[in-house]
């Protein structure tokens, strides 16, 4: 459920790339948004994805934001954002990997039977 080794490292790279795509999609020219809460929300969501905390929920929210950004884009821009949505959905379905907070919170547990 939480792959380690090369697959886990690949998922870490995927989480980082999804977070970077989200921030660059929301702030393409690097300028500050009109609302500080918009900035805080996007950066917080990107941080949750980077560290792998609540990954399925974070990826779902990220997909929704990216799909809203599709509105009014040209064909080429819409294609790039659509690929970003697909990558984010894939990350949400694959899970965070072993190098994440989710793995520490919800990872494998060894259940020791109680002595009788």
Element layout with pairings:
Layout: H1 5-26, H2 36-51, H3 55-69, H4 75-94, H5 101-106
Give structural attributes.
single chain, 68% helix, mainly alpha, 0% strand, 116 residues, elongated
Written description of the protein model:
The protein is an all-alpha fold and 116 residues long. It has one domain (5-106). The mean pLDDT is 87. The chain is built from 5 helices and no strands.
Mean pLDDT: 87
Range of helix content: 55-70%
**How many domains, in number, for the residues?**
1
Which residues form runs of ≥5 with pLDDT under 50? none
Strands, count = 0
The CA-CA distance between the termini, in Å, is 32 Å
Main sheet: strands, sense, barrel: none
Which band does the percent of strand residues land in? under 5%
Structural class designation: mainly alpha
In sequence order, what are the helices and strands, one letter per element?
HHHHH
Q: Given the structure, what is the number of helices? A: 5
Calculate Rg over CA atoms: 17 Å
Overall body shape = elongated
Task: Characterize the quaternary organization of these chains.
Answer: single chain
């Amino acid at each position: 459920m939480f792959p380690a080794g090369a697959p886990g490292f690949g998922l870490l790279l995927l989480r980082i790339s999804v977070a970077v795509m989200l921030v660059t999609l929301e702030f393409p020219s690097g300028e500050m948004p009109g609302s500080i809460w918009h900035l805080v929300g996007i950066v917080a969501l990107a941080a949750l994805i980077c560290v792998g905390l609540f990954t399925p929920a974070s990826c779902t929210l990220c997909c929704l934001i990216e799909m809203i950004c599709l509105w009014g884009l040209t064909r080429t821009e819409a294609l790039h954002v659509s690929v970003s949505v697909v990558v984010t959905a894939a990350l949400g379905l694959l899970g965070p990997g072993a190098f994440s907070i989710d793995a520490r919170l919800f990872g494998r547990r060894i259940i020791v039977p109680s002595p009788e």
